[in-house]
Write a structure and sequence with these properties.
about 270 residues, 11 helices, membrane insertase activity, mainly alpha, transmembrane helix, single chain, membrane, transmembrane
Length: about 270
């Protein structure tokens, strides 16, 4: 299945895009890979992240209204239950059923269903996989010996051969540290952390560490792309914390939003 995926149409499109970008810009391959990662992150991922921010902002601002309506519904169900002799189990069933209906109506009214906020993940992960496999194909000669030869001499500094793994582990370790920093920044946003959120944070911490030996085993071209992509992801995450940029993206102001996000972030990471 791996080879089938590596030879799939989306991966070939990614290969053509990378080769076209390098040919159009005339950049060395290491710079073309870094620029490609920045371009994809900025043109595709950043707008989706801003869209996600708008949805999450609307959802957060809905919570007081949902709480108020839930209290009113609980009173109505209690009165109705006494009139009809409902058991506690039946009353709870009617309460949950009607609360779900009310919440769904609010989501439709404000066009902010939580599932829409997952669009970023459904686009970002397949895109990352396709570009990674495209770089792997270029590195092993699956796209032709000419591109592989260009890759073998298209690196820089300590990773001059993009077809070989980074024996110094500088790229893999940098990738791991970058991803861990992203995880910690996301974790610092949550004031009240649920058990699931704690498990998710620890899972992504583990993934960040596991990715270090993985990045050390693959061609440097892939490790460089992963590092460049993570760097842009970190930059965009910091940018989306800016109140000014959030207003430019039409992200509604919320109760949890800070006027000094960067000062708060430094404080959270150093304590």
């Amino acid at each position: 299945w791996y080879e089938g995926l590596a030879q799939s149409a989306p991966v070939h499109w990614a290969e053509d895009g990378l080769v076209g970008l390098q040919a159009a810009t005339g950049l060395p391959w290491w710079a073309a890979i870094a620029c490609g990662a920045a371009l994809l992150r900025t043109a595709v991922t950043l707008p989706l992240a801003a869209h996600q921010g708008r949805l999450l902002g609307k959802l957060e601002n809905l919570q007081p209204e949902i709480k108020k309506l839930a209290e009113h519904l609980r009173y109505e169900v209690s009165v109705r239950g006494k009139q009809l002799g409902w058991s506690e189990k039946v009353a709870r069933f009617h309460f949950k059923k009607n609360l779900r209906r009310i919440i769904t109506e609010l989501y439709i009214r404000d066009n902010c269903h939580p599932f829409k906020a997952t669009l970023l993940v459904w686009v970002q992960i397949p895109m990352w996989v396709c570009v990674s496999l495209a770089l792997r194909n270029c590195s092993v000669g699956a796209t032709g010996s000419e591109v592989q030869e260009q890759f073998s001499a298209g690196g820089a500094l300590w990773f001059t051969d993009l077809t070989a793994p980074d024996s110094t582990w500088i790229l893999p370790v940098s990738l791991g540290l970058m991803n861990l920093l992203i995880v910690e920044i996301f974790a610092s946003q949550k004031m009240e952390v649920s058990r699931f959120q704690k498990l998710a944070t620890n899972f992504f911490r583990a993934v960040s560490v596991v990715m270090i030996p993985v990045a050390a085993a693959v061609p440097s071209s892939m490790a460089l792309y992963w590092l460049s992509s993570s760097f842009m992801g970190l930059s965009h995450n910091l940018l989306l914390r800016s109140p000014t940029f959030r207003r430019l993206c039409c992200i509604p102001r919320t109760k949890s939003e800070s006027d000094t996000p960067y000062r708060d972030l430094v404080s959270a990471l150093t304590t």
